[in-house]
Design a protein that fits this description.
Two copies of one chain form a homodimer. The first copy, chain A, has helices spanning 50-54, 129-143, 159-170, 182-191, 205-212, 226-233, 265-268, 285-298, 314-323, and strands at 5-11, 24-30, 38-47, 75-82, 92-95, 102-106, 111-112, 150-153, 174-179, 196-199, 217-222, 236-244, 272-275, 305-309, 329-333. Chain A is an alpha/beta fold and 334 residues long. In chain A, strands 3, 4, 5, 6, 7, 14 and 15 form a seven-stranded mixed sheet that branches. The first copy, chain A, has a six-stranded parallel sheet with strand order 10-9-8-11-12-13, sandwiched between helices. A two-stranded antiparallel ribbon of chain A has the order 1-2. In chain A, helix 2 packs across helix 3 (159-170) and helix 2 (129-143) crosses helix 8. The A-B interface holds A 61, 225, 230, 238, 244-247, 250, 256-277, 280 and B 61, 225, 230, 238, 244-247, 250, 256-277, 280. Strand 13 (272-275) of chain A pairs antiparallel with strand 13 (272-275) of chain B, so a sheet runs across the interface.
Chain lengths: 334, 334
């Protein structure tokens, strides 16, 4: 296995405003020789996540990628060679593979996945940390959706949003998804079984929401931020919970994030806005993955995938996340 | 008691930007004759509260005062004449007296106060709905301060802030108050016994706070909003609670409130921002007032008063609330 060739995506330059193709460079190199405690992994599915965009900045919450460095990416892969007693060739693993076809990595950063619970690719999607688990803890532990409550999910046709909306539905909520375009809205009501959908691109969002949720909103699962957050804040009910999962509308200019100017509605309505990152719930991943896998098997939970083939497509896949044309989980199969 | 003369403060014109003296007019009139279910009250202490400013707008959360109408104000007074079976002359009462020396009011809007628990004037201050009770529920029920936690209170020399800071101290918090000017800061540490004070007018607030709270902020009791909210958001710890009580920095231009642009810190640190209005806790007023009265008697809780004498001073007192020159509770003794 020495001299395994690797194709990888580098950060060519830091983005300055919207992401563009020339921020990336794809090149072929050789993997280094394994040292003790390392694994050689062949990537199987790479997860496209918003945080990849944020680490392209000079300073970012999740750390920063140096110019010339391999872009970060979580993914599942298979062990080709192991110098760790805990892994052997053939194991399916999940962890920070990076935007590349192969990786020599510290075994300590990877977890073996149980393919009898769900197929390998599900561990980046419906059971994945950045998708299924994020949605699960956002709805269950932060939003605390109760049966009969009205739940609104933004970016509801996206990876996290589509799972969050479905869990809220499973938990007995009346769920309204917000997405861009009639196709996505049909996807929400027909394929995901939501109670309503608002097309932010063509509807009068404020009016459409008021019509679908005449008594107001109990839980808002927000992945978008910006103006939409204010529109929903204006329609929250007493004791509402706003779950701050992300703010994809703001990631391209993190220096000038638009704060919610209607945040005083929280005081008027005794409501709360609570943020979270999935890693705060690390001790509960197993429990959540078991429940998610059962819903998946029963078909109660649908994980739509949008697949890009070939590592060279990685930049396109990341651009797609921000242009918002996709439905469900963006995956790169290297 | 017929033809009781009354001096009252009217809304002469709606404010357009900062409050000014010509928004008000003071005039003398006669009280109407009592009807069944009404009381004639002589005002004893009127409470100056930020909401008085907000109801001067055309449309406001707390309702609106018509131009030419008597300004609203909560206060304590004594019943001069009663046509309600539940009250008699001499009773001390609390309720919406209005900005006037005398008032003919529906008895149903007033509550008798127990002067054996605390003197009449305490029922607009340390035990009052807009002051003591607001502070109490903000710290106890929303902030949930735990012993050893670091608590920051903005407008800490003000009425609500000074009580909130002291309750947080009583509950075992390390309390840092933010106020304007060295006199107020001395008041916080020397008279209220807080652990630290930051002068927002002269200190580098960000740096001063980082020095006083090197491990970050667990609870922020916010009465100010604006830029300061972002400064504190940047320094919150994991699982922090931000209590949104008010936003006095924003009340002069409610159409263009500045939202907290660092609200995504909530997600990064699994923190929450929760708002409240005191009336959501109405069923617990009695319990809270008992506890507050015990602290008052023991001297653990100090209620500093800033008194304006004469109803003609009501506009000055309200202007003082927004210019921020006072310490403690602003009271008008008509």
């Amino acid at each position: 296995m020495a001299n395994q060739s690797n194709r990888r995506v580098l950060l060519a330059r830091r983005p300055d405003g919207p992401l563009s193709r020339d921020c990336f460079q794809v090149e072929t190199s050789q993997c280094s020789t394994l040292e003790d405690g390392q694994l050689l992994i062949e990537a199987n599915c790479l997860s496209i996540d918003a945080f990849i965009r944020t680490v392209m900045y000079e300073e970012a919450y999740h750390g920063s990628v140096p110019v010339g460095g391999t872009l970060v990416a979580l993914g599942v892969g298979r062990v080709l060679e192991s110098r760790s007693p805990e892994f052997e060739a053939g194991d399916g693993v999940f962890g920070p593979i990076g935007a590349q076809t192969h990786a020599v990595v510290p075994a300590s950063l990877f977890r073996k996945v149980d393919e009898s619970v769900a197929p390998l690719r599900a561990w980046v999607g419906a059971l994945g940390v950045t998708t299924g688990l994020t949605a699960y803890f956002g709805i269950r532990a932060v939003g605390c959706v109760q049966p009969g409550e009205t739940v609104v999910v933004s970016a509801a046709a996206g990876a996290v949003g589509s799972v969050a909306a479905q869990i809220a539905r499973i938990d007995g909520g009346r769920v309204i998804g917000i997405a861009g375009g009639p196709d996505k809205c049909r996807f929400l009501t027909e394929e995901l079984g939501l109670d309503g959908a608002v097309d932010y691109k063509s509807d009068d969002v404020e009016g459409a929401l008021r019509e679908l949720a005449p008594d107001g909103v109990d839980v808002y699962f927000d992945n978008v931020g910006g103006e939409l957050l204010d529109v929903v804040l204006d329609q929250i009910r007493e004791k509402a919970r706003i779950v701050i999962c992300g703010a994809i509308s703001q990631y391209e200019s993190m220096e000038s994030v638009r704060g919610p100017s209607l945040y005083l509605r929280l005081a008027e309505r005794h409501a709360r806005m609570e943020g979270f990152a999935v890693n705060f719930f690390e001790t509960r991943y197993g429990e959540a993955q078991r429940e998610l896998s059962i819903w998946l098997k029963r078909g109660e939970l649908v994980m739509h995938e949008h697949v890009f083939s070939g590592i060279d497509q990685f930049p396109e896949a990341l651009l797609a996340m921000f242009s918002g044309g996709h439905r469900g989980k963006l995956i790169v199969e290297p």
